[in-house]
């Protein structure tokens, strides 16, 4: 049985939104025109393609989230750190560059006394320190240019900020310090969904500068790897063992991880169901690639030891992907063009 193209597109958006976006949009609403639907479907297919070929993921992190000291003293220390005490160039919201200790001193004075000012001591956060990072091997100039474009688009409302690109570590990254108060006095108050939007925007700017970048949630990729906090990293470097840190999840943690991934796995199955029933050979080929992707997710290796009933329930979520015979579906030339660097993508004769 084959499905009409419009139905396939709508299901792709609905299930894709559960994977990549929040909240779920209603594509059947009358306000969405055919042109808007086609645009969003195209973007969703591009997002799927990047995810399936495991495009490098951007990292965006607020690094002073739990800091106690928030006044100008903390700001000075951080600006000295990201500028390596004046040895690394800083660039501000107007494109002006600063290098050297004297320029750094002038900058901190301007932040302390200019505009709304940053008090010497404060119980509230006065500056957000944001880290924008990509894996090693990424073009460093492109990362810097993308960070500049990201900051201008996200904070270019007259808000003061500076950033510095660090080239002394394997992974290229940019430190961005943004004043909390804007020109109208409003304070930044980013939430989890804002950080995801920042990731998506930074990834988009990287792509505009010729760098393949993606910004998907870990659950959508079936990721279970736990990354230690900075304090744990420093303890390990000193030869100490963190009391509450476990690099590998225990049985209970695996159960929690598996339950957390149930929703995304169901959404992937919804994508496969829609694509497998499409009249388009390319869509059916895409369903085969999704099947392979889901079966090789890290979460599959960390499945908990379950009883017979639970195991049957877990298998029920995934086996329909294989039962459709999608693993041996024909890969088209279009799919080869979509995934040129993937050795597993080929045309089967």
Regions with little confidence, pLDDT below 50 for 5+ residues: 320-349
Which range does the strand content fall in?
A: 5-15%
First-last Cα distance = 24 Å
Q: Mind summarizing the main beta sheet?
A: 6 strands, antiparallel
Q: Could you state the order of secondary-structure elements as H and E? A: HHEHEEHEHEEHHHHHHHHH
**Class by helix and strand content?**
alpha+beta
Basic shape: globular
User: Count of helices?
Assistant: 14
- What's the pLDDT, averaged over the residues? 81
Strand line-up of the largest beta sheet:
1-4-6-5-2-3
Radius of gyration: 24 Å
**Beta strands, count:** 6
Helix content: 40-55%
Q: How would you summarize the topology of this molecule?
A:
Layout: H1 5-20, H2 34-52, E1 59-62, H3 72-82, E2 90-92, E3 97-98, H4 101-113, E4 127-133, H5 140-155, E5 161-166, E6 173-179, H6 192-208, H7 218-221, H8 230-237, H9 251-260, H10 262-276, H11 281-295, H12 298-301, H13 308-323, H14 333-338
Antiparallel strand pairs: 1-4, 2-3, 2-5, 4-6, 5-6
Helix pairs in contact: 1-2, 1-10, 3-4, 5-6, 10-11, 10-13
Structural commentary:
This protein has helices at residues 5-20, 34-52, 72-82, 101-113, 140-155, 192-208, 218-221, 230-237, 251-260, 262-276, 281-295, 298-301, 308-323, 333-338; strands spanning 59-62, 90-92, 97-98, 127-133, 161-166, 173-179. The chain has 349 residues and is of the alpha+beta class. Strands 1-4-6-5-2-3 form a 6-stranded antiparallel sheet, with helices on both faces. It starts with a helix and ends in an 11-residue tail after the last helix. The model is unreliable at 320-349 (pLDDT under 50).
């Amino acid at each position: 049985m084959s499905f009409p193209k419009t139905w396939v597109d709508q299901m792709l958006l609905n299930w894709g939104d559960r994977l990549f976006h929040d909240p779920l949009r209603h594509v059947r609403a009358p306000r969405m025109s055919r042109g808007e639907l086609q645009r969003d479907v195209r973007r969703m297919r591009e997002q799927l393609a990047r995810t399936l070929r495991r495009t490098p993921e951007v990292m965006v992190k607020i690094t002073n989230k739990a800091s106690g000291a928030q006044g100008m003293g903390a700001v000075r220390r951080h600006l000295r750190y990201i500028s390596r005490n004046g040895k690394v160039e800083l660039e501000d919201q107007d494109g002006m560059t600063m290098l050297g200790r004297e320029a750094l001193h002038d900058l901190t004075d301007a932040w302390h006394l200019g505009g709304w000012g940053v008090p010497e001591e404060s119980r509230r956060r006065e500056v957000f320190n944001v880290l924008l990072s990509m894996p090693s091997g990424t073009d460093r100039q492109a990362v810097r240019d993308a960070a500049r474009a990201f900051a201008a688009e996200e904070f270019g409302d007259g808000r003061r900020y500076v950033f510095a690109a660090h080239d002394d570590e394997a992974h290229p990254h940019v430190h961005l310090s943004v004043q909390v108060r804007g020109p109208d006095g409003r304070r930044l108050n980013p939430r989890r969904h804002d950080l995801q939007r920042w990731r998506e925007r930074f990834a988009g700017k990287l792509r505009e500068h010729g760098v393949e970048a993606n910004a998907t949630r870990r659950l959508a990729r079936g990721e279970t790897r736990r990354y230690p906090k900075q304090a744990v990293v420093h303890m390990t470097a000193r030869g100490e063992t963190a009391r509450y840190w476990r690099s590998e999840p225990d049985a209970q943690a695996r159960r929690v991880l598996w339950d957390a991934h149930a929703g995304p796995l169901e959404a992937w199955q919804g994508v496969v169901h829609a694509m497998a029933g499409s009249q388009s050979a390319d869509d059916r080929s895409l369903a085969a690639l999704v099947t392979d992707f889901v079966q090789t997710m890290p979460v599959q290796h960390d499945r908990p030891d379950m009883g017979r009933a639970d195991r049957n329930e877990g298998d029920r979520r995934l086996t329909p992907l294989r039962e459709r015979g999608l693993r041996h579906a024909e890969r088209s030339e279009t799919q080869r063009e979509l995934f040129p660097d993937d050795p597993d993508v080929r045309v089967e004769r």
